[in-house]
Write a structure and sequence with these properties.
Layout: H1 2-7, H2 15-35, E1 41-47, E2 50-55, H3 61-67, H4 73-85, H5 88-120
Antiparallel strand pairs: 1-2
Length: about 130
């Protein structure tokens, strides 16, 4: 769901677009896992027709892993060093830049497709 909201629902069918998507995923993974808090569903019940849901406190996946006693300290140290090197504003700027690049490529593709359609049948695009 995060991927589709970020990369839109367009079709990416070239190697160049794939490389942009892969770079976008790298930044998005870091941004979501280290800086985007999520509420986890604790309990779900039904009273008549009404569904009652209870959530815990919103935390980032990074903080959940850090708070977990079952995760080894060695892994927590690596995550902490990675977290200290990250800048959320810079990650967000890079994500936005790559999103804009994909949008421009898709707009260009649609424009080229429209021109090819006009060449095939120019009377389709004449407005009355």
């Amino acid at each position: 769901m995060v991927i589709r909201r970020t990369a839109c629902y367009s079709r990416y069918d070239t190697d160049y677009k794939l490389s942009i998507l892969n770079e976008l995923y790298d930044y998005l993974r870091l941004y979501v896992n280290f800086f985007q808090p999520v509420k986890k569903l604790i309990k779900k019940g039904r009273i008549g027709n009404k569904v009652i849901k209870r959530y815990d406190e919103a935390k980032t996946p990074y903080k959940r892993v850090f708070a977990s006693p079952s995760i080894e300290d060695e892994i927590k140290v690596k995550l902490k060093s990675k977290y200290d090197m990250l800048n959320p504003a810079e990650l967000k700027r890079r994500i936005t830049k790559l999103q804009n690049k994909l949008l421009k490529l898709n707009a260009l593709k649609q424009e080229m497709s429209k021109e090819k359609d006009i060449e095939k049948d120019p009377f389709v695009y004449i407005s009355i």
